[in-house]
Amino acid sequence: MKAVVLCLSAVASLLLSAAAVLQENPTPIDAETAKKFGKIFAEHAAKLDKQQIKIDADAELSNGMHVPDKLGLLLVPQRGLKEGEELAAKFKTDKGAPLAYLFMFHLVPVIDGQPVDVSRVRSVKFVDDNGGEHTIYTLLLSVRQVAEDEYRLYCYGHEDKPLVDAKFSQGTGPGTEPAVVEIKDPNEQTRQGKLVITIFNKYQASFTIGHRAD
């Protein structure tokens, strides 16, 4: 998979140091910054080959959390995401209903207790004003109904099978957006934490993430 190189002029708030660890409490990325970079990253992610699901991202709904200059997450939800019969039907398809792009800065999912090998995760790259190249790991997110009252969050990397398969349960999030991402319970010793996705401020799914230095 060819990484897409982005030349950005104002990335200071999202630059990540190689020494980043999950030892500080992440804070929300301000709305304008989230929208700006959500638009840029989603436009380039849309050009990646062999995507398992087609995401029509709405940068206006971008949201995320970060430890400035160290690590962060940015979620760019599917356009027109709302509850109803149309969405309910998509939940039952093989790959599920498109939910969002998830961009991860010095963070990757943890599989079997270890940060996943980055060869399994899609990525885009940007080059800063000083010529430094930085990797943004990218997952494609969908929601699939697997039983009458069971819904799963699927997170796709390169493979046809979801890299992450997490169960949804009831729970409220930090806002009213159709899809919101948070980082909870950061652990300095393990350099891991819990990534939580909330949809419609009603349902939540989570999985473990860990620090990944470039």
How does this structure look, described?
The relative contact order is 0.20. The protein has one domain. Strand 3 and strand 4 form a beta hairpin. It has helices at residues 31-45, 85-91, and strands at 5-7, 27-28, 63-67, 71-77, 97-105, 107-111, 114-115, 122-127, 133-147, 150-156, 164-167, 169-170, 179-187, 192-199, 203-211. The strands form two sheets. Strands 1, 2, 3, 4, 5, 8, 9, 10 and 11 form a nine-stranded mixed beta sheet that branches. Strands 6, 7, 12, 13, 14 and 15 form a six-stranded antiparallel beta sheet that branches. The chain is built from two helices and 15 strands. The radius of gyration is 16 Å and the shape is globular. It is mainly beta.
Report Rg.
16 Å
Number of helices: 2
Sketch the major β-sheet. 9 strands, mixed
Shape: globular
Strand composition percent: 35-45%
What's the rounded overall pLDDT mean? 87
Number of strands: 15
The rounded distance between the terminal residues' Cα atoms is 18 Å
When the domains are counted, the total is 1
Assembly state (oligomeric): single chain
Secondary-structure element pattern, one letter each: EEHEEHEEEEEEEEEEE
Report helical residue fraction.
10-25%
Low-pLDDT ranges: 1-21
Q: Which structural class do you get from the secondary structure elements?
A: mainly beta
Secondary-structure map:
Blueprint (H helix, E strand, L loop, with lengths): L4 E3 L19 E2 L2 H15 L17 E5 L3 E7 L7 H7 L5 E9 L1 E5 L2 E2 L6 E6 L5 E15 L2 E7 L7 E4 L1 E2 L8 E9 L4 E8 L3 E9 L3
Parallel strand pairs: 1-8
Antiparallel strand pairs: 2-3, 3-4, 4-5, 5-9, 6-7, 6-15, 8-9, 9-10, 10-11, 12-15, 13-14, 14-15
